[in-house]
Amino acid sequence: MRKVTNINQGWNFIKDGISEKVDLPHTWNAFDGQGGEETYYRGRCVYERNIPFFEGRVYLELNGVNTVCEVFVNGIYIGSHENGYSMFRYEITDFIKADEENSIRIIVDNSANEYLYPEMADFTFYGGIYRDVNIISEVSKSHFALLDMSLCGMYITPKADGRVFVKSLVEGSCMGLTKEFVITDADGKKIAKTETDADRDAVKLFIEEPVLWNATENPYLYTMTARLKKDGAVIDEVSDRFGVREFYFDSEKGFFLNGKHVKMKGVSRHQDWEELGNALTIEEHKKDIELIKEVGANSIRLAHYQHDEKFYDLCDEAGFLVWAEIPVISKFSKKKQEQAKFMLEELIRQNYNHPSIFCWSVANEISIGGAGGGVNDGIRELNAIAHALDSTRPTATAQVTFSSVNSKLNDIPDILGYNQYFGWYVQTVEQIDKWLDDFHAKKPEIKLCISEYGAEAVTTLHSANPVQGDYTEEYQAYYHEHYVKALTERDWLWGSYVWNMFDFGSAFRNEGGVRGRNNKGLVTFDRKIKKDSFYVYKAHWSDEKFVHIAGERFADRPTGEQKIKVYSNCDKVTLTVNGEKAELSGDKIFVFDAVIKEGKNVITAKSGKCAHKIVINGTDIPNPDYSLPEGGQSFVRNWFNSSEDINPDNLSLNDSLGDILFNGEVQKLIKNHAGVTLDSPVLKPLGKIPLKPISKAASFLGADNVINLANQFLQTIEKDK
């Protein structure tokens, strides 16, 4: 019978010839990948340790190594792996020696690689062995598959009527062997069993009156145990959990789980923590689940890659509906297509049995790098592979904000997401309403969600009069107040995903006075502070009664008449300011008029047993720490605007105004949206004006975000031939 031994402890880590002792999980970018330096280390490092001799057939299992690794046992090359986010195994039986220590050497490289995704993305590519490493030993010659990319060599497909189909693969001879499959319920009671010859790949079992996996309402899990037998004795055994459920999407009515309409109230999650990077233990994963539960979400977009198996397990248990995806992101490349196919197959094979996963996403914002270069065919190929590997789940993609409603990419996946940042990068928050209604009117057949939206907030920045782009908690909260309402009231929109649940590392960013971080989280990078926007969603999504006074960290405020905002899911809230009481009835957001005196002010909000108290200081002297320093960096210099990323076959700000205005596709857009035809003779004198100097001047004046978005849009339009 197989035995699993964890070997996380006691590794020797070598970087630039310097050795140190580390335990796994480990990343060498825990600090420099989060703003510690202008650049972070991307290169080759080595992990080494000894292991004793293990009996039977022996396998080395690595659950996450970023990005490329080469494995050696006793100095002999075993193999390499090119996916920084998945589990993989090697058989090492023939390379270890009895009665002596055996050495394992793993060379890890997170350098940029033109053949591998991700290459260009808004998150840190942490290097290291950042998930568990195990030895699987005492494996019999014939056993359930360990090398077919799957978790356990068993694929479970349940149906809502109680039928459960199981496909399993045996490595080694099946001669004279049988397979036994047993289903147990959540209490461990045996409820179904069947036995068959070992060379039969698929069998069917039946659960009478199945309890459905019903998301957060009742995430009920069964366990399937498969046993390989010889002469009645068990020689190998694997098990995995599964849930019985059915679901579908409707372009007019949204998402239905087990026959009931469910609005997906989602958050996105990156896998890193402050000063830990992506090297997390089960405790950090559990804390993230706990916070997502508290905010009241029922769905998680696990961006932008395969996450730890432990986290998918926790999602199954908590009942979260999970969007799973691969890092085919920002810029399509034919050179990377083979790796993309490999990553997709690993994602699906390893996570097939998770009831929480409802879709496989094959691309994110892939047209940032331009709409040419074979991107449509490439995404179509990935979409077909996902369908072939799993016919039970829909495919998805997330489109970049400027992607046309008529983009051919929109027609490829079964369900579609758009990443929209009206009110942060472009225009105002109200524009999201118009965009949603216009899109649905033009493409009513598309099953749409908003796969990203958000605004940055640094918890030290505050304003009584917040404005777009000021990085204050107050503006972020205002932004989300509008979005949550707009997204909730449109039933045809099947769901939405806040970008992001947590601040996360993005080594090339320098925004809001914070280097190396994306600050759009509802919760800080260290998970210690829930920003005011967290409570906006808790008020709309959670059943746990609470009151929260906004601006707890806005300690120095102007004196005189001020607005005090309270978020709550209670019907009535009483606010007391320096002994003066006021009561309001309302819905989620309660805005009180109050008088702030000079010096100490005690403010308390109550509703039933719920209470929250803050103390603020009234002063007419602005606190300089509450705003960005004059001339300080605000919007990021976007990570996709380097000249080497420009597709020369498409328009860009490197072209002249005439090239752009008289482009056939641009003229069509102007006529369709403005209802006018360009008068070429009038505009002819402008035709030779180069835009590059103008864009450089605008960049110098701090308009990087506008310039980059304009360039992104132009890169979606092919030049006239």
Which helices and strands, and how do they pair?
Layout: E1 3-6, E2 11-15, E3 18-22, E4 44-51, E5 57-62, E6 65-66, E7 68-73, E8 76-82, E9 88-91, E10 102-109, E11 128-129, E12 133-139, E13 143-144, E14 154-158, E15 163-168, E16 170-171, E17 177-184, E18 190-197, E19 202-206, E20 213-214, E21 218-219, E22 222-230, E23 233-242, E24 247-250, E25 254-257, E26 260-261, E27 264-269, H1 282-295, E28 299-302, H2 309-318, E29 321-325, H3 337-351, E30 357-364, H4 375-389, E31 395-399, E32 415-419, H5 431-442, E33 448-452, H6 473-488, E34 495-498, E35 504-511, E36 514-518, H7 532-541, E37 547-549, E38 556-557, E39 560-568, E40 572-577, E41 580-585, E42 589-596, E43 599-607, E44 610-618, H8 657-661, H9 664-674, H10 680-683, H11 692-700, H12 704-714
Parallel strand pairs: 27-28, 27-34, 28-29, 29-30, 30-31, 31-32, 32-33, 33-34, 38-44
Antiparallel strand pairs: 1-12, 2-3, 2-4, 4-10, 5-9, 5-12, 6-11, 7-8, 7-10, 13-16, 14-15, 15-19, 17-18, 17-22, 20-21, 22-23, 24-25, 25-26, 35-36, 37-39, 39-42, 40-41, 40-43, 43-44
Helix pairs in contact: 1-2, 3-4, 6-7
Architecture overview:
This protein has 721 residues and is an alpha+beta fold. The protein folds into 5 domains: 3-141, Galactose-binding domain-like (Jelly Rolls, Sandwich), CATH 2.60.120; 160-242, Immunoglobulins (Immunoglobulin-like, Sandwich), CATH 2.60.40; 247-544, TIM Barrel (Alpha-Beta Barrel), CATH 3.20.20; 556-626, Immunoglobulin-like (Sandwich), CATH 2.60.40.10; 648-714, no CATH class. Helices cover 18% and strands 33% of the residues. The chain is built from 12 helices and 44 strands. The radius of gyration is 28 Å and the shape is globular. Residues 635-644 and 696-703 have low confidence and may be disordered.
